[in-house]
Design brief:
This protein is an alpha/beta fold. The protein is built from 21 helices and 19 strands.
Length: 658
C-alpha cells in the first residue's frame, strides 16, 4: 500500500473517531438538557394547573375543571393530564398518543426518551382536596434532538468534504518529492541519471532528496568514467597514438575477420600506402615535422573512410598506412588512388614534405574471400611496382588474385535482380546460446542466401553490395520480414525462437518502409514484454550504422519497444566511438566484433577489453554476445569474462530455416 493511501486512511480514521466522539458528547448533552427541560415544564404545568382548579374542586365543578384542563392540554406539550379527588378517583382525564412530526420512526424507535410524570396535591386551606397528574409529551424533545443530530451531521459532512479536498491537495503536494524520489530510483534502475531541482522545503524530505541527488551524481560519474576508461584502454591497445587510426595488430585482426568470415565478407579495395624515407625526413627536420606530414596523410584517409559505410583504416608501421573500403568497384578505387597521389604531391608543394616523392600506393581489388597474408603480400607487390613507376604513383595488382565474382558480370546482375524480385531468397538460421547454460538459446539470427547461376549458394557478403547499387536492399528486407512473420504465424510465438533480423541502412532511413514494418508486426500476437527482456523479434544493425544514424535509430527503437520488440548492435567495438551513446539507444544486446574474439584465448589485451565492454553494457542492463566463437579455447575464456551469449561454429552452424 502506498504512503499516500496509508496517510489518507489514517486521517480518515482520526476524523471518524473525532466525529463519533463529538457527536456522542453533543447527543448526550442535548438529550440530558431536553429531558431536564421537559421535566421542569411538567412541574410548572402541574403547579399552575393545581392553583387553577383548586376552587373548582371545592365546588365540585367538573365542567369547569375539564375546561381548565383542556386549556393546558391543548397546547400539545403534555401526553396525559389527570385530575383526581381526594380518594384518588379520576374527576377528568385527557390523554393523547404522542404523534411526532418531522422525525423518522426509526429514530424514535431507536432512541427512547422517558417522558417525565409529575403529581401535585391540591389543597384547600389545610385540607387535601385532590391531586393532579401530568405526563409530558416527548415530541418536542425528539424534534430538537433530531435537528441537533441533522445539523451536526451536515456540519461534519461539509467539514469532511472540505478536509478530503484540502487534504488530497496538501498530501499530494507534500508527497511530490517522494514521488520524484521513486521516479529517480526507477530512472537509476533504467540507467538514467537525473537529479531533482529544486529541493523540497520540508526538512526531512529535503535531506532524502539531497542524498538521492548525490547518489545519482556519483553513479552517473562512475558510469561516465568507466566509459571513458574503456575508450582510453581501447585507444591504447588498438589505436596508433599519433594518428588515432587502428594500429598494425588491430588492423590485421579486423582484415582477417573480414576476409575469412562468409557472413561478414564484402568485396572491396585494399590500399597499401608507404611514405618514402620518413626516417630520413625525421633526421633532417625533426620528429615533430615528420608527425605533421603523417597526420596530414592520416586525415586524407579518414576523410575518405567517412564517406563509406564499411571501412578499415590503420597505420601499419612508421610510414606505412592501409585502407580497406568495402563495396566499391575498380573504377572508383582507381579514382581514389589517383586523388590520393594528388594529395601527396600537394604536401610537397605546401612544403610539408621536403622531397617530391612523398608516397606511393599499392592497390588490390578483393572480390572473394582470401588469405590475409596472401592479400597483404599482393598489395605489397603492387606497392613496389608503384615505387618503380616513379614519384607519387600508384599501381593496381594484376597477378593471380585478380578475379571477378562472376565470369559474366552483366549476366550475374540480371540473375540477381530476377532472384530478388521473385523473392527467391533462402533464409539461414544460426542460434546464439547462453554462455553459462549449454543448449539454451538467446535468439536465432537470420542470414540471407541466394543461389548463383550455377545454383550454388551465394552468401550476402557477395551479392549485397550489388543489391545496394541496384537499390534492391529494401526488397530483400521486405522479403525476409514477410517470411519471418509467416513463420511465426504458422508455428506460433511459443513454439518459435526469438529472431534477430539484419536491417539495411536504406530501410532505416525510409520512414514509409518503417511504417510498413510496424504494420507487419501488428499482425503478430502481442509478445510478453516481461520475458527476460528478450523480444520475439530484434532488428540488428552494425555499430557503424548506429553511431552515424543515431537519431533515426532512436526513433525506430522507441516505436519497437512500445510494441514489445527491440534492436541489437552487431560488430560492436569495430569503430572508435565513445560508448556513451549506448545510454540513450539502450539496445537489447551488443555483439562484440570478431576481431576481438578470434585471438581471445592468447591475447590478454583483448580479454581485458572484452571484460571492460561487458561491465559497461551490464551496467546499462544490455546483454553482451561474442561473435565468431569457433573453438573450445575461446569458449572457456569467454565463460570467465561474464559474457551473456556466444555465436559461432562451436555452438551452432548456420542451417536453412524450415
Amino acid at each position: 500500500m502506498s504512503l499516500y493511501k496509508q496517510l489518507v486512511i489514517f486521517i480518515s480514521v482520526l476524523f471518524v473517531i473525532m466525529f463519533a466522539g463529538t457527536f456522542m458528547v453533543n447527543f448526550k448533552s442535548t438529550q440530558s438538557f431536553l429531558t431536564q427541560q421537559l421535566k421542569s415544564q411538567t412541574n410548572d404545568a402541574a403547579t399552575a394547573l393545581g392553583l387553577s382548579v383548586m376552587p373548582l374542586i371545592e365546588d365540585y365543578d367538573i365542567a369547569g375543571i375539564q375546561t381548565t384542563v383542556n386549556t393546558i392540554f391543548d397546547s400539545g406539550y403534555y401526553q396525559v393530564v389527570d385530575v383526581l379527588d381526594v380518594d384518588g378517583a379520576i374527576l377528568t382525564s385527557n390523554t393523547q398518543y404522542p404523534v411526532i412530526e418531522g422525525v423518522p420512526a426509526w429514530f424514535i424507535n431507536t432512541l427512547r426518551l422517558e417522558a417525565p410524570t409529575t403529581t401535585r396535591e391540591i389543597t384547600a386551606g389545610w385540607l387535601i382536596a385532590g391531586s393532579i397528574r401530568i405526563t409530558g409529551h416527548p415530541g418536542y424533545a425528539y424534534q430538537q434532538l433530531w435537528e441537533v443530530i441533522v445539523r451536526s451531521f451536515m456540519w461534519f459532512l461539509s467539514a469532511a468534504i472540505a478536509l478530503i479536498l484540502l487534504g488530497n491537495f496538501t498530501l499530494r503536494h507534500l508527497l511530490v518529492p517522494l514521488h520524484n524520489v521513486e521516479k529517480q530510483a526507477q530512472a537509476i534502475s533504467a540507467r538514467n541519471y537525473d537529479v531533482q531541482i529544486p529541493l523540497p522545503k520540508t526538512k526531512e524530505l529535503r535531506s532524502v532528496v539531497g542524498a538521492m541527488n548525490k547518489m545519482t551524481t556519483i553513479v552517473k560519474t562512475l558510469f561516465i568514467e568507466q566509459a571513458k576508461t574503456a575508450s582510453h584502454l581501447r585507444d591504447i591497445a588498438y589505436q596508433d597514438a599519433l594518428t588515432g587510426l587502428a594500429n598494425q595488430g588491430h588492423f590485421k585482426a579486423q582484415l582477417t575477420s573480414h576476409l575469412q568470415e562468409s557472413d561478414k565478407f564484402v568485396p572491396g579495395a585494399l590500399f597499401l600506402i608507404q611514405v618514402n624515407d620518413i626516417g630520413s625526413f625525421n633526421n633532417r627536420n625533426g620528429f615533430e615535422e615528420g608527425d605533421k606530414a603523417l597526420l596530414k596523410i592520416a586525415d586524407f584517409l579518414k576523410q575518405q573512410a567517412r564517406k563509406y559505410p564499411q571501412t578499415l583504416c590503420g597505420k601499419i608501421s612508421g610510414g606505412d598506412f592501409a585502407l580497406f573500403i568495402a563495396s566499391i568497384d575498380s573504377n572508383t578505387a582507381d579514382s581514389l588512388a589517383e586523388s590520393f597521389c594528388k594529395k601527396f604531391k600537394q604536401l610537397y608543394v605546401d612544403k610539408i614534405y621536403d622531397q617530391e616523392n612523398v608516397a606511393n600506393i599499392g592497390l588490390i581489388m578483393l572480390e572473394k574471400m582470401q588469405q590475409p597474408a596472401a592479400v597483404l603480400s599482393a598489395a605489397d607487390e603492387a606497392l613496389r611496382a608503384a615505387q618503380a613507376k616513379g614519384a607519387n604513383c600508384w599501381q593496381r595488382f594484376q597477378g593471380d588474385l585478380e578475379t571477378s565474382a562472376s565470369t559474366g558480370r552483366h549476366s550475374w546482375l540480371k540473375h540477381l535482380i530476377a532472384k530478388i524480385n521473385a523473392s527467391d531468397i533462402t533464409l539461414l538460421q544460426q542460434n546464439v546460446q547462453r554462455n553459462q547454460q549449454d543448449g539454451e538459446n538467446i535468439h536465432t539470427e537470420i542470414f540471407v542466401q541466394i543461389n548463383d547461376e550455377q545454383d550454388k549458394p551465394c552468401s550476402a557478403g557477395l551479392f549485397m553490395p550489388s543489391a545496394e547499387k541496384l537499390d534492391l536492399t529494401q526488397k530483400i528486407d521486405r522479403t525476409v520480414i514477410d517470411k519471418i512473420v509467416v513463420h511465426l504465424v504458422n508455428n506460433g510465438l511459443e513454439q518459435s525462437p526469438n529472431f534477430a533480423i539484419n536491417l539495411s541502412l536504406s530501410s532505416l532511413r525510409d520512414a514509409s518502409f518503417l511504417q510498413w514494418i510496424y504494420s507487419s508486426l501488428r499482425k503478430l500476437p502481442v509478445p510478453d514484454k516481461n520475458l527476460d527482456r528478450q523480444s520475439k523479434i530484434v532488428f540488428e544493425f552494425s555499430e557503424f550504422v548506429a553511431v552515424n544514424n543515431l537519431q533515426n535509430l532512436q526513433g525506430f527503437a522507441k516505436e519497437l519497444k512500445a510494441m514489445g520488440y527491440g534492436i541489437g548492435l552487431d560488430q560492436f567495438g569495430h569503430g572508435s566511438s565513445d560508448f556513451g551513446y549506448l545510454k540513450s539507444l539502450r539496445p537489447e544486446y551488443v555483439k562484440i566484433d570478431s576481431a576481438y574474439t578470434k585471438q581471445l584465448h592468447n591475447n590478454l589485451d583483448n580479454q581485458f577489453f572484452v571484460s571492460t565492454l561487458s561491465n559497461i553494457c551490464h551496467s546499462l542492463d544490455i546483454k553482451v554476445i561474442a561473435q565468431a566463437v569457433e573453438n573450445q579455447e575461446q569458449l572457456e575464456v569467454l565463460k570467465t569474462l561474464h559474457i551473456d551469449g556466444v555465436q559461432g561454429y562451436v555452438v551452432h552452424r548456420p542451417e536453412v530455416l524450415v
